[in-house]
Amino acid sequence: MKTLEIRDLTVALTDSPDQPIVKALSLTINTGEVHAIMGPNGTGKSTLSKAIAGHPDYKITSGDVLIDGESILEMEPDERARAGIFLAFQYPAEIPGVSIANFLRAAEQARLADGENVDAAAYYKRLYSKMDDLKIDRKFTARSVNEGFSGGEKKRCEILQMAMLEPTFALMDETDSGLDIDALKIVAEGVNRLRGDDLGVMMITHYQRLLDYIVPDFVHVMYDGRIVKSGDKSLAIELEAKGYDWIKEEFATTTA
Amino acid sequence: MENPAEGIDQSAGNFNYDVKYEFDAGSGLTENTVRYISDVKKEEDWIKEFRLKAYKVFMDKPMPTNWATDDLNNIDFDKIRYYLSQGQAPKRTWDEVPDDIKKTFERLGIPEQERKFLAGVEAQFDSEAAYSNIKEIVAKEGVIFTGSTEALREHPEIFRKWFGKVIPTSDNKFSALNSAVFSGGSFIYVPPGVKVSQPLQAYFRINAENFGQFERTLIIVDEGAELTYMEGCTAPKFSTATLHSAVVELVAMKNAKIQYITVQNWASNVYNLVTKRGIAHEGAEIKWIDCNIGSRLTMKYPGVILKGKGARGEVLSIALANDGQHQDTGAKMIHAADNTTSSIVAKSISVGKGRSTYRGVVHIPKHLKGCKNNTECDALLINSSSRTDTYPAITVRGDDHAVQHEASVSKVSEEMIFYMQQRGLNEAQAMSLAVNGFVNDLVSQFPMEYSVELKRLIDLEMEGSVG
Description:
The structure holds two protein chains of two kinds.
Chain A lengths: L2 E11 L2 E15 L3 E5 L6 H9 L4 E10 L2 E2 L5 H6 L2 E4 L6 E5 H10 L10 H14 L10 E2 L5 H15 L3 E5 L7 H14 L5 E6 L4 H4 L4 E6 L2 E6 L1 H10 L2 H11 L1
Helix pairs in contact in A: 3-5, 5-6
Chain B lengths: L9 H4 L9 E2 L6 H10 L4 H16 L23 E2 L13 H9 L2 H8 L2 E6 L2 E7 L1 H4 L4 E4 H7 L1 H7 L10 H9 L4 E5 L9 E6 L6 E2 L2 E6 L4 E9 L7 E3 L2 E6 L4 E10 L3 E11 L4 E10 L2 E4 L2 E4 L5 E10 L4 E10 L5 E10 L4 E10 L7 E10 L5 E10 L5 E10 L2 H9 L4 H17 L4 H18 L2
Parallel strand pairs in B: 3-7, 6-9, 7-10, 8-11, 9-12, 10-13, 11-14, 12-14, 13-15, 14-16, 14-17, 15-18, 16-19, 17-19, 18-20, 19-21, 20-22, 21-23, 22-24
Antiparallel strand pairs in B: 1-2, 3-4, 5-6
Helix pairs in contact in B: 2-3, 3-9, 10-11, 11-12
């Protein structure tokens, strides 16, 4: 088992480090667990995931992020990725002229030692088998990464990358946003397929409906940069029924 | 060696050997320098006169700094050495090539490439070819592949007929300079109907410091014949400037096809000022594939004169301007017959303080019918301090023509780089991939050997550009 520990983490925009967005947040995710992070818009959910991945727009002003007790904050974003962190983007970037097949191959190559090369035949065999698992048309691999993709295609492309790169911890940022119900089912099925003892998932979502398809082990409610409530999947159902207002009220009374 | 074109690489090319030169025209350029070169080559009077006239044109013509960069004024013509050679005829086998020269080309991987995929190779070391060979099977069909020095002696009738006809001495200051002091370069003649299936390759190597390389290439592909020619160039990095100023003339007779591929990777102290032009007769096709990496300043605008009905001209150009480099490149398409078609696709990448400039000329006069041009130039900027300029000059008279022009400037965004880093690529690898993606649609049209090589060169450049 491996552990991703977020310890008293405070995050601000690099440009305005005095205004924290995530405030002394702590959370521990073990492999084999799926944690859902829910909450109203603008409470710092996406900021949390990007900061862990090392996005240059965000500055960690205090606290730490550790994998098995080792801090990853001194690492470049690519080193964090190779250490096992995968961020499924809410808005994945387009890379014109670079095919999905070549992109993933470069990503795999980057994980090898100097002088080692990706075995092309084995690579394509693996890629195609993962695509079959995720019910993705093989023609997809020849298209430039995310260029001209529909919302559903972008998300499926993220899931395919996750399947190929086999991370230890996946941070999924609003993976359900912009998807119709069919696309949502396909993406959820993909994630469920990847679930297992070797993967820890932090799944950020605004809506409860994703959790109908990916059943979390833990649900956390985030508000104003903090986790204000944690529970199991019944918490998500409660949120669905009551909305977020009672959380806001409860939070207002506790901090008053 | 995995990569057949391994040699064309700046870092691998950054070495030189101490070579004894038999003939040395000394530093600086006077009429005597021109006479010296002509005498060493034991040239006939007409060519000596041609050189001396060109020398005067060169001296009279001002630097084109009214439109081009002032950096041209930093070339010190008095410090340059205009002719260096060991005075031997080019060898037909690598075994005969003198050791000090042979080891240079071996290190650049040239004999290896020749065995693997070339129909013939000419390897020029400073002023003269050290090695020149064409495969028996190609020579048997009547294909001539030799240096300009040898062609003047052995094939004067063909040489003289076309020499200086596509690019007149007075075309520009540097074509005049080349016409005065030219040495080396390739001479190719392909007889009617002969289709040379493997490429012929020339490799131009500068070894000496303060040297000026002025090769002169003349390629004539006769009716219905076909040829692919490739050239590669390198030089070691010296502290002083080096000058490379070539003239390349192509003649495609009726229904002939010429594909001319350049992958040059000069050291960052080289002034690379080259004039390249072809004439396409009826139904003929000339395609320039021009990849410019390295150099301090490159000025090069390959052109096609579409002289016969239905002729086609094409330029695919890629320029990568790294810190401190200026790639001033483009294309010229001169339509001079009905139903002629031209296409220009130029892609430039500016890295750090690198600067790229596109200059294009498309000329379609009023009396012609049914001409087409498509021009597309795309620039990619890697940093906010990079610079790109576009100067398209499209003159179309008459109303029976189809002309299209598109230009774009894009930037590698921080989001794109972060996305790639998040998948495990480091910053330099991410930049390389972005740049390779940008040129991908062009590179996929290149012969395999060169697309592999270009990708590797881009990787090397980007590796060095990320601090």
